[in-house]
Amino acid sequence: xxxxxxxxxxxxxxxxxxxxxxxxxxxxxxxxxxxxxxxxxxxxxxxxxxxxxxxxxxxxxxxxxxxxxxxxxxxxxxxxxxxxxxxxxxxxxxxxxxxxxxxxxxxxxxxxxxxxxxxxxxxxxxxxxxxxxxxxxxxxxxxxxxxxxxxxxx
Length: 154
Fold this sequence. Notes:
single chain; 154 residues; 46% helix; four-stranded mixed β-sheet; 4 strands; alpha/beta
């Protein structure tokens, strides 16, 4: 039986949603803050471009056979959720979509580092900030994923 489609979303789709999707699929250990190289080994981590905003990225399946995605949707996350839910209702599968906003888990260093790296192209300056900011925010992201799993897998 096919599971739900769980979509983690944030502003740029390069940090918090990517990390949450990686935790959810077991690519990152929820119990241990990853080292910098573990974060940087994630395909999209600090690599998403503005052209990729709005594009769903498939991460894999969880233990409940749910499909896990990430997406960057700038400032329209709530509007995107509403729109896609209404389209899903029309097509008859609204109960299969589960949206998770990861933006509230983002730390100040993640915001500054992400802006420097992704928006201004100052990767050498921004990436170390965003990595350390993500490591600091990791327990919040892991807790969010655990909440989602508890809701969806029951």
